[in-house]
Design a protein that fits this description.
Enzyme class: transferase
Radius of gyration: 36 Å
Number of strands: 10
Protein name: Probable E3 ubiquitin-protein ligase HECTD2
Largest sheet: 4 strands, mixed
Keywords: Phosphoprotein, Transferase, Ubl conjugation pathway
Organism: Physeter macrocephalus (Sperm whale)
InterPro entries: E3A/B/C-like, HECT_dom, Hect_E3_ubiquitin_ligase
């Protein structure tokens, strides 16, 4: 219930309770000293409750009535009735004795200055700078003299703010127009100003356009979240209705309104920029997604964008923030498939041209590894077959009879990632406070294993495999810096602007300490006694690094502490791990070298690589298919009772047992195509999974207890394919 809807307290007039809730909170002692209100207040409230909607008197009329009765009371000693104007069905109040009324009368004068309702000043509206006649005269003078200063100043003033814009073009700047018939805009003046702008020198045009954009961004950044979201939703709806109109006959032909969608997209681009400039953003970036675009020919849009770029040929790929992550995944998958087919076709042509017999294995990236030498074998295979990285991946574990239909590939990824990221391996440091891994800054002679991790991530995206990797968002921002590998190998890669927010995602305690340094009110130089030098331990040896030339002799002061913090963060997240991350970057892009990466935000890359850790087993239950079972069968009902009651770790083990990964793909649980098949074997057997097909083979257990016991044993001992 809002403040206005609540029944006012008997200790204050109803109007004050409704209009000044904030003043009341800090003034409780003063309110208690006010004269108590007699039954007139209660009667007034009752009268308000019985009055019809729209007939309640305003606060000013209430005070006016009270003051009128106060003046009348000074001239007569007869009992007085309070009268409420404009309120229907209000019962007459009982008479109040004169002496009681004079002691307990209601008056605005008895309220303290803090409790009086503040009177908001009338906004000062700008005066119309020029009439259309004046403006056209200035334009003609500028053309003849070559001095455009007057016209330039007019444009800058006009687009400085919305009130200035209203003053220039609205017929009445203070009036509101809500009808289709009359927009209230002087359209002739608007057209004249636009036509004149087209004929001004280019430097003026650029300045004016920059001013327009900055004015829009400034106004939109100041909107409320609700209002901002409404603007975005209406523009997205406008695009959807133009693409798929419910009644096409009500719209003009597409040739007549081809500018509608591009114009709406450009406005959305400005809104997206305004949203990104606010910290935190007004709305999540996902609110800009237009799910209608999932139903258009995305590859045609992508090819148009690749062919024409950001030229006059429109493509939604020019505005990737409106394309959902699911649609972007489709674009990346199809682009990857086309690259795979192209590489495989080229291999086939090369074989035939050399008069060699074609072999099906030449169409795949075949990995043959030993479980006992997983990392070294994988590194050797990927190094030898670097030219085949964009072929379809197939994995074989030496000594195991497993045909890779997808399940062996999933397990290879999982085991390799688990081993590489183990703390004993020394490549990555696990930060317990942030639950993520970060690159070790230890220097080494060979960074090929970091390149291997990059290749693994690239292969995962390329082959639509989700990985259980815990990198901070900053990693994916660096991975897209730049999104396309530069031709000049001397150009730095993986370097991006970083802030305390990025550091907080990895080392929250250190980020907090640096923030405290920035806000410290004492003497930084005398109290902290720090210099532009940092220290790191490497294999038991403390090493020092200067953040800038001569940093060990430059003290950190109140004046230069911002520079110190920025250099320190840049050292930790960019410079100290540059060689490690550069190898990782080149490994990833050696597989995923595609313009499609330019469509992605860092957060979206993370989702494509890792999937989502959030499990919704109810959604999995709704989308599960059955073979040999019906969803009403007793065994299936036992199964879901057990699974829905599992703790999160067992639910993840079940997902890993049946799919090869404990993460949820981009499309959610429905994209798993999870199937439960009836296994016509003894109920003494454990469940069996075909991870290639996301299939669980379940014997018809007779009791829930037996099913739970067998299921837990099966999902807790699921590594390897030898038994199957």
């Amino acid at each position: 219930m809002s403040e206005v809807d609540r029944v006012p307290s008997p200790a204050a007039p109803p109007a004050v309770a409704a209009t000044a809730p904030e003043e009341k909170k800090g003034k409780e002692p003063e309110r208690e000293k006010l004269p108590p209100i007699v039954s007139a207040g209660a009667g007034a409230t009752a009268g308000l409750d019985r009055g019809s909607k729209g007939q309640i008197s305003t606060f000013s009329s209430f005070i006016s009535t009270v003051n009128q009765k106060k003046e009348a009371a000074e001239n007569t000693s007869s009992p007085t009735h309070l009268v409420f104007p404009n309120i229907k069905n209000v019962r007459d109040l009982p008479p109040i004795c004169l002496d009681v009324r004079q002691k307990q009368r209601i008056s605005i004068d008895t309220l303290s200055s803090e409790m009086k309702t503040p009177v908001l000043p009338e906004p000062i509206l700008p005066v119309q700078p020029k009439t259309m006649k004046d403006f056209l005269e200035d334009v003609e003078k500028a053309k003849s003299s070559g001095d455009w200063k007057t016209v330039h100043d007019f444009y800058l003033t006009m687009f400085d703010s919305f009130p200035e814009l209203n003053a220039a073009f609205k017929k009445d700047a203070s009036a509101s127009f809500n009808t289709i018939e009359d927009s209230g805009i002087n359209a002739k003046f608007v057209n004249a100003v636009y036509d004149a702008l087209l004929n001004t020198p280019q430097d003026i045009q650029k300045t004016v356009l920059k001013g327009i954009i900055n004015s829009l961004l400034r106004e939109w950044k100041g909107l409320s979240q609700k209002r901002f979201k409404q603007l975005v939703e209406r523009l997205l709806q406008f695009i959807s209705l133009r693409l798929f109109p419910a009644k096409p006959e009500e719209f003009p032909p597409i040739s007549k309104c081809s500018w509608w969608i591009p114009s709406a997209s450009k406005v959305l681009a400005l809104l997206n920029t305004a949203n990104n400039l606010v910290h935190p953003p007004l709305i999540p970036y996902t609110d800009f997604y237009n799910s209608t675009l999932d139903h258009i020919d995305l590859m045609e849009e992508y090819h148009t964008w690749q062919s024409f770029g950001n030229s006059h040929r429109f493509s939604f790929c020019q505005y990737p923030f409106v394309i959902s992550i699911a649609a972007k995944k489709i674009i990346i998958q199809r682009d990857s498939e086309q690259q795979m087919i192209s590489i495989a076709r080229q291999s086939l042509v090369d074989k035939v041209s050399r008069r060699q017999r074609p072999d099906m294995n030449m169409l795949f990236l075949n990995m043959k590894v030993r479980r006992t030498h997983l990392v070294s074998d994988s590194l050797d295979e990927l190094t030898r077959k670097r030219a085949d990285l964009k072929k379809k991946l197939k994995v074989t574990f030496v000594g195991e009879a497993g045909l890779d239909m997808g399940g062996l590939t999933k397990e290879w990824f999982l085991l390799l990632i688990r081993q590489i990221f183990h703390p004993d391996y020394g490549m990555f440091t696990y930060h317990k406070d942030s639950y993520c891994h970060w690159f070790s800054s230890f220097k080494c002679d060979n960074y090929s294993e970091f390149r291997l991790v990059g290749i693994l991530m690239g292969l995962a995206v390329y082959n639509s495999i989700t990985l259980d990797i815990r990198f901070p968002p900053c990693c994916y921002k660096k991975l897209l810096s730049p999104p396309i590998v530069p031709n000049d190998q001397s150009m730095p890669v993986g370097i991006c602007s970083v802030t305390t927010d990025d550091l907080c995602q990895i080392m929250p305690e250190l980020a907090h300490g640096l923030s405290e340094l920035l806000s410290y009110e004492g003497n930084v130089e005398e109290d902290f006694y720090s210099t532009f030098q940092v220290f790191q331990e490497e294999f038991g040896i403390i090493k020092s690094y200067n953040l800038k030339p001569g940093g060990d002799k430059i003290p950190v002061t109140n004046q230069n502490r911002k520079e110190y913090v920025q250099l320190y963060i840049d050292f930790l997240l960019n410079k100290s791990i540059y060689k490690q991350f550069a190898a990782f970057y080149y490994g990833f892009h050696s597989v995923c070298a595609s313009n499609a990466l330019m469509l992605l935000r860092p957060e979206e890359v993370e989702i494509l690589v890792c999937g989502s850790p959030e499990l919704d087993m109810h959604a999995l239950q709704r989308s599960t298919q059955y073979d040999g079972y019906a969803k009403t069968d007793l065994t299936i009902r036992y199964f879901w009772d057990v699974v829905l009651g599992f703790p999160l770790d067992l639910q993840k083990k079940l997902l890993h047992f049946t799919t090869g990964s404990d993460r949820v793909p981009v499309g959610g649980m429905a994209d798993l195509n999870f199937k439960i098949s009836k296994n016509e074997t003894s109920t003494n057997w454990l469940p069996v999974a075909h991870t290639c097909f996301n299939q669980l083979c379940l014997p018809p257990y007779k009791s829930k207890k037996d099913l739970k016991q067998k299921l837990i044993i099966g999902i807790s001992n699921s590594e390897g394919f030898g038994l199957e």
